[in-house]
Amino acid sequence: MKPPLPRLHAVTDERVARRPDVAAVAGALAGAGGGAVALHARGGGACLTGRAHFTLATQFGDLASLVFVNDRLDVALAVHAAGVQLGRGSLPPIEARRLNAGWWIGRSVHSIEEARSAPAEGADYLLAGPVYATATHPEAAPLGLERLGLIAEVGLPVIAIGGVTPARVRELRAAGAYGVAAIRALWDATDPARTVQEMLMAMDDT
User: Fold this and answer.
1) Which residues of the chain have pLDDT under 70?
2) What is the DSSP code string of 41-67?
3) 135 phi and psi, to 5 degrees?
4) What integer pLDDT is reported at residue 191 of this predicted model?
5) Architecture (CATH level 2) of domain 8-204
6) pLDDT for res 138
7) pTM for this entry
8) Is the separation of the CB atoms in 203 and 7 below 8 Å?
9) Residue 153, SS3?
10) Pick from 13, 15, 2, 12: which is nearest to 40 by CA?
11) For residue 58, how many other CB atoms are within 10 A of its CB?
């Protein structure tokens, strides 16, 4: 039986994945949120080798939080991940499920059209974004709250990403998001544990 889908997802990128303090920050995030926080081992496409991606996911697996692996299904199998996050170029969710029926399988979507096709592809939840302008993908046009709401109407749990901060959590939840994901707001926070607590409290208030 699957654990509940976490409402807060701490996603790495290549920069974060290579930081010498990544395990220490991950420990602070996990300690503050427990099972409400998912740690995503994401390497930024082909920027990390398979070994480096595996090492990152293994570090996360030593912590209490649930581990999700982005794109690399071989790594997800090796570390017994709780979930996988699949992008446009990844294996379709329905095929990934053949490898492990117990995974939470997320589909990254950037438009209403992509979101509407995701249920038939076998996705369990959607990672939708960027909702706001973000330095991670400066070239991407923000979805905005209205389109986020339309994506939520698809019927799958929606995790909002892109420009997410503690101050924006309530409006994202009000727009229909099940939860939120962040890179800089969590990994670059002065006090990562406090930031987790602030975000989770904001979700509990809505």
Assistant:
1) 44-46, 64, 206
2) E---TTSS-HHHHHHHHHHHHTSSSEE
3) -70, -20
4) 98
5) Alpha-Beta Barrel (3.20)
6) 78
7) 0.95
8) yes
9) coil
10) 12
11) 15
Segments in the chain forming alpha helices (H): 14-17, 22-33, 50-61, 73-78, 93-99, 112-121, 144-152, 169-175, 184-187, 192-204
Phi, psi angles (nearest 5°) of residue 181: -130, 150
Closest listed residue to residue 172, CA positions, set 4, 57, 7, 56: 7
Place of tokens 């117990």: 102
Place of tokens 């699957």: 2
Contact 158, 123 (CB under 8 A): no
Residue with structure tokens 């990994």?
187
The label of the residue with tokens 């920027």 reads 47
Q: How far apart are CA 28 and CA 190, in angstroms?
A: 11
Contact 121, 100 (CB under 8 A): no
Between the alpha carbon of residue 68 and those of residues 56, 85, 137, 148, 202, the distances in Å are 11, 7, 21, 23, 23
Nearest to 67 by CA among 129, 124, 12: 12
Res 206: pLDDT? 65
Q: Which residue has the tokens 């989770």?
A: 200
16 alpha-carbon distance from chain centroid = 14
Length in residues, the chain: 206
pLDDT at 44: 65
